[in-house]
Amino acid sequence: MASLSFDARLNLQLGKNHQQQQSLVFEEIEGLIRVHKDGQVERFPVIPNVSCAISSGVNTHARDVTIDKFTNLWARAYVPNRPGKYPLLVYFHGGGFCVGSAAWSCYHEFLANLVSTAGCVIISVNYRLAPENRLPAAYEDGVNVIMWVKRQVADGSNEHKWWVSQCNLSNFFLVGDSAGANIAFNVAVRLGNISASVSNAIKPLHLKGVILIQPFFGGESRTGSERMASHPPNSALTLSASDAYWRLSLPSGANRDHPWCNPLSNRIDPSIPSMMVCISELDILKDRNMQLCNALANMGKAVEMVMYRGVGHAFQVLHKSQMARSRTQEMISHIKAFINQ
């Protein structure tokens, strides 16, 4: 059964027959989301949501935490089931800004595995989705989560002691995959701007780096990998889906050269911290991801680029082949090394 919501801003008042108006589709990504011209948004349960209590089969503990009741902003917190002080990762899921959840089973499994294997604490953010909440809503949610974490640390909250007490706050990272990597990048830029005007804005947190997994960026001009004649079987991201996600998530009237979509269309903020960029060889975003790495390196920024051969977009959460499983363990090893260097 599809989940339904309503965005009055999409109501174009076409004709007098409401039933006819309801049937008019404004945008659709088959099997994932259908947006009607009357403002109705349908999301299809392609991946099941799971409770935080569901066992992931690894040595971790997870709970859901409320961050902002007004905007329904919440997160799923993961900690290792062993004492210690661990790097803190704030994670943003993928889904083209329009679908996905911190409760999706594929993220629950991947992040629990990452926590157990890499040794870290993860706050996985369930941010607001487009088109009901177009960008920059997800970026604002990301910043609000960081400020909420800062408050829990400062207040010495007993309610959140179970995960706060295991965080090494000087080892704090922003992480995301696909659209979530775009969010991580833009939240880092915003935190840099805040810190430039407010001293110790996120103290005692220290943003040590950003990990971008197949970051979802775009542009009006096509890259070679976007023009690929063929995509891997069951590709998680096609060019037509990518374009649709941008039409649904960017501010109305913006094109794909908007800096939130194409960071190379503008000057990249020099306050951006060191980065690791994880790229899939068979991803339509491969060339764009590599261009970002080159631009950061030309700025003198520390950037570590890792290429995963023989796999496509979102392989670490959506694909179950032996190749994908092997590459996923490689990715977790690379992340572990990056957050502990």
Can you offer a commentary on this structure?
With 341 residues, the protein is an alpha/beta fold. It contains nine helices and twelve strands. The chain has helices at residues 18-23, 105-119, 137-155, 161-164, 179-197, 239-249, 286-298, 315-318, 322-339, and strands at 3-6, 25-29, 33-36, 40-43, 60-68, 73-80, 86-92, 121-126, 167-177, 207-213, 275-280, 303-308. Strand 5 and strand 6 form a beta hairpin. Helix 2 (105-119) packs across helix 9 and helix 3 packs across helix 5. Residues 11-21 have low confidence and may be disordered. It comes from Rhodamnia argentea. GO terms for molecular function: hydrolase activity. This is Probable carboxylesterase 17.
Q: How is the secondary structure organized here?
A:
Blueprint: E1 3-6, H1 18-23, E2 25-29, E3 33-36, E4 40-43, E5 60-68, E6 73-80, E7 86-92, H2 105-119, E8 121-126, H3 137-155, H4 161-164, E9 167-177, H5 179-197, E10 207-213, H6 239-249, E11 275-280, H7 286-298, E12 303-308, H8 315-318, H9 322-339
Parallel strand pairs: 7-8, 7-9, 9-10, 10-11, 11-12
Antiparallel strand pairs: 1-4, 2-3, 3-4, 5-6, 6-8
Helix pairs in contact: 2-9, 3-5
